[in-house]
Write a structure and sequence with these properties.
The chain has 623 residues and is of the alpha+beta class. The chain has helices at 5-24, 29-39, 57-66, 68-71, 83-102, 162-169, 180-195, 245-250, 262-274; strands at residues 46-47, 50-54, 74-75, 110-117, 123-130, 136-144, 203-212, 217-225, 232-238, 278-285, 294-302, 306-315, 319-328, 336-344, 348-357, 365-377, 380-394, 398-412, 416-434, 443-461, 467-487, 490-503, 534-535, 538-539, 544-557, 560-575, 584-595, 598-607, 612-619. The chain is built from 9 helices and 29 strands. Strand 20 (443-461) and strand 21 (467-487) form a beta hairpin.
């Protein structure tokens, strides 16, 4: 009997739908299997065979990490390698080992494998390796497919020939072992160096390493294709709405048409980060643009105009304190930043404000500041105020500051009272050559300060019924040198500071201009400002200062390289004359942590002159 096609199709669809509905009401087989697999305990791994590798220690470690025989030595019983599969791995092992050894420069290695019965009936495999001679780089040829432009030398980058510079800095030199990681690293470094120096689209036109395994030599031949020389074009700024875009552009030290270098843009990015207006900044070259005027893309994330921070802290120098800090990054709608701080504690009370302009076209910033402070230290009270006005310039390596300053300080103790005022013209200069400003491990920093002023003051002593006064000009000089160097897993650092105030009588100079020693960043083991000349049994400011420190640090644990143990020796003092200088010593141990905001230091120091132990806690580094 013949059925019509349409009714038959409808009947088939209906039966299929009913079948699918019935199936959907059944438990999901795959889901049940997944649940059973998850609930089933994981089988413990067992040793399937014994493997012994006879090779020099470094090569043995390499083979144990990457050789298939080593990786499959342990597995759950259900995944155990059967006899034929183990035989296949054993046969393939010598060739695989030779390939691995070639990456370390051994191209003529003799590798053999032997199989026998081992303990507990397990198969035993012994892989014997005679590495043979190490292949040594015999020559390196570096060429360019087209001439590279000469560059204008600078103090930091004194070369003119880019290709010759690549040859000098090539890291895999003749006489060194040829290793695949070193070969890749040398190529990447050379390419990165040229890309950072005017040729961002540079690529390798050809690279080759001809290995003579019999002679044990490698001949390296590379040719680089620089592509076009890129020059800097217009600056395109994104993300600025709250502050003046001109402030972003003024921080650029390059001009349109200057040859692109990565360092130029990184310096620009660092200046943006330090200006105090932005939470983040990135500066990139748009290499898709025209090479003769490639756009510079600046992306900014602004900080809020007003920012207030409340803090609770402690310092071994000045004890516990609470603080309030406020930023106004557009004072009365003008291009100025106001930074105000209030500190209140048993030993330190201060209130200060600093106004700083946005950077001008030459990078300089105007500033004005005022501060009022009361400090209790060394059994005395110092009440002081300071005002200054000047200009500053802050670059990657240098800081410069010159200013006019007026100072008043009154120091009161049971034996005497000093009261003095001064006005001065000052210049500060700082140079940093450090691998890191926040947590340096290598390099040096030098700070120099000089000032010329006029002061007047009085001194009242309790043992004499009378008052002494004086006035006159003075010259103040101060220097500080910090040095850092790593060696043999240790980190060494040293510090030397020296200063002198040239004045007829110390009475005429405020205490804030004179020198004292002792404390966290001076001579540890002694109280803050407790070292200096004495008058009637009280420590006073000295006209000369000399302190120094030597410290060694070492990571406490390999898993926590930022946590370091330290040992140190500090020495120094302040005096009225160099002939009266009698350095005192402090030494001890410490625990230091390199945090993102700078080193956190906890030191326990013994003051040899006072025969006392003292705890010192500090954050950051002073330059």
């Amino acid at each position: 009997m013949r059925l019509d096609e349409a009714p038959l199709r409808a009947l088939s669809i209906g039966l299929l739908a009913a079948l699918l509905c019935a199936c959907s009401s059944l438990p999901s087989v795959s889901k049940n299997e997944d649940a059973q697999a998850a609930a089933k305990p994981r089988e413990p791994e067992v040793k399937l065979y014994d493997l012994e590798i006879e090779a020099p220690a470094p090569l043995r470690a390499l083979l144990l990490e990457y050789l298939d025989l080593a990786r499959f030595q342990k597995a759950p019983p259900s995944e155990a390698i059967a006899g034929p599969e183990l035989d296949r791995l054993a046969v393939a092992a010598p060739a695989q080992a030779r390939t691995l050894l070639e990456t370390e420069g051994y191209f003529n290695a003799d590798v053999k494998i032997a199989q026998s019965s081992g303990n507990a009936g397990l198969p035993r495999l012994v892989l014997s390796v005679v590495p043979g001679p190490l292949v040594i780089v015999s020559s390196v040829a570096i060429a360019a497919s087209a001439p590279l432009a000469e560059r204008t030398p600078t103090r930091d980058e004194p070369w003119t020939d880019r290709l010759e510079k690549l040859r000098q800095t090539w890291t895999l030199k003749p006489g060194q072992p040829f290793r695949q990681p070193a070969w890749n690293s040398a190529k990447n470094a050379a390419l990165g160096e040229l890309r950072a120096d005017g040729y961002p689209t540079a690529a390798w036109a050809d690279t080759g390493a001809r290995i003579d395994a019999t002679a044990g030599t490698a001949v390296l031949d590379v040719t680089i294709d620089g592509g076009p020389l890129f020059r800097l074009g217009p600056i395109r700024v994104e993300g600025v709405s709250r502050y003046d875009e001109a402030a972003v552009r003024r921080l650029a030290t390059f001009f349109r048409g200057d040859v692109y270098t990565e360092k130029t843009l990184l310096d620009y990015q660092e200046r943006l980060a330090k200006v105090g207006l932005f939470e983040g900044a990135s500066v990139e070259l748009d290499a898709t643009g025209p090479p003769d005027a490639a756009p510079v893309l600046v992306k900014i994330k602004e900080l809020s105009q007003h920012q207030a921070t409340f803090g609770v802290g402690y310092s071994a120098n000045t004890g516990p304190r609470v603080s309030l800090e406020h930023y106004d990054r557009k004072v009365f709608g003008q291009p100025w930043i106001a930074h105000s701080t209030l500190t209140y504690g048993p030993d330190l009370k201060s209130l200060g404000t600093e106004l700083t302009s946005y950077p001008r076209e030459d990078g300089w910033r105007d500033l004005a500041a005022a501060n009022v402070e009361q400090l209790l230290a060394a059994d005395e009270t110092r009440d002081s105020w300071t005002t200054r006005i000047g200009r500053s310039l802050d670059t990657t390596r240098f800081e410069r500051l010159y200013y006019l300053e007026a100072v008043h300080a009154r120091v009161s103790s049971a034996p005497l009272v000093n009261d003095a005022d001064a006005g001065s013209v000052n210049y500060n200069w700082l140079r940093r050559d450090l691998d890191s400003i926040l947590a340096p491990t290598e390099g040096a920093a030098l700070s120099l300060q000089g000032g010329v002023g006029y002061g007047r003051g009085t001194q009242t002593r309790s043992d004499i019924d009378g008052e002494f006064s004086s006035r006159g000009p003075f010259v103040r000089a101060y220097s500080r040198f910090n040095w850092y160097r790593p060696f043999g897993g240790w980190f060494a650092n040293a510090r030397v500071e020296a200063g002198e105030v040239f004045v007829r009588s110390a009475i005429a100079v405020p205490d804030t201009v004179l020198f004292r020693a002792g404390g966290d960043d001076s001579v540890r083991g002694y109280g803050y400002r407790t070292l200096g000349p004495t008058v009637n049994g009280a420590v006073v400011g000295g006209r000369v200062l000399l302190t120094g420190s030597v410290e060694m640090e070492h990571p406490v644990n390999e898993r926590l390289p930022a946590l370091l143990g330290a040992v140190f020796i500090d020495a120094g003092n302040a005096a009225d004359r160099w002939s009266d200088m009698h350095p005192v010593f402090g030494y001890g141990v410490g625990l230091h942590y390199r945090s993102p905001v700078g080193p956190l230091r906890f030191d326990l120091a013994y003051g040899q002159d006072v025969h006392q132990l003292r705890v010192h806690v500090s954050v950051g580094i002073a330059y």
